[in-house]
Write a structure and sequence with these properties.
By secondary structure, the protein is mainly alpha-helical. It has one domain. It is about 60% helix and about 0% strand. It is built from five helices and no strands. Helix 2 packs across helix 4.
C-alpha cells in the first residue's frame, strides 16, 4: 500500500498558517495591504521575521487576488478606485455624509467582492 508523504511545500504552508494571525475583516486586510504598498513605494524593503504580527499572506498575495478579480470582471474599476482612494487615507467612507453615499456603496461592494476570496485563502478569519 502506498504511503502518503507530505511535500515540503505542504508542510511549510501548514506551519505558516499555524503561526500566523488572520485579519479580522476584509477592511483590515485592505488597509494593511495599502500600508505595505505605500511603504514599498516610499523605498522600504521587506525583511522576513520583522513584523510584530505574522500574517497568513504577503502583500503580493492580496495584489494577485485583486488582479484576478478585476480581470474576471468581479471587481469593477469604480470599486477599485474607491478602495484605493480610501486605502491611501486609511479611512473608510463616512456613512453619515450623504455626499459620500456613492463612495460608501462602491467601498462596500469592493470589500464584499474581496471578502470571499480572502476568506477562501484563510487570509481573513
Amino acid at each position: 500500500m502506498p504511503v502518503s508523504v507530505p511535500t515540503p511545500h505542504a508542510d511549510r504552508s501548514s506551519a505558516l498558517l499555524a503561526t500566523t494571525v488572520p485579519f479580522s475583516s476584509t477592511a483590515e486586510a485592505w488597509f494593511w495591504y495599502m500600508a505595505c504598498h505605500r511603504a514599498r513605494l516610499d523605498g522600504a524593503r521587506p525583511v522576513a521575521g520583522m513584523a510584530t504580527v505574522e500574517r497568513p499572506c504577503e502583500p503580493s498575495d492580496i495584489h494577485r487576488i485583486v488582479c484576478q478579480l478585476y480581470r474576471a470582471g468581479n471587481l469593477r474599476s469604480q470599486h477599485l478606485a474607491v478602495l484605493v482612494r480610501y486605502g491611501r487615507t486609511m479611512l473608510s467612507p463616512d456613512p453619515d455624509r450623504p455626499d459620500k453615499s456613492r463612495d460608501l456603496h462602491d467601498w462596500r461592494a469592493g470589500l464584499a467582492c474581496l471578502d470571499q476570496a480572502l476568506r477562501a485563502r484563510q487570509i481573513v478569519a
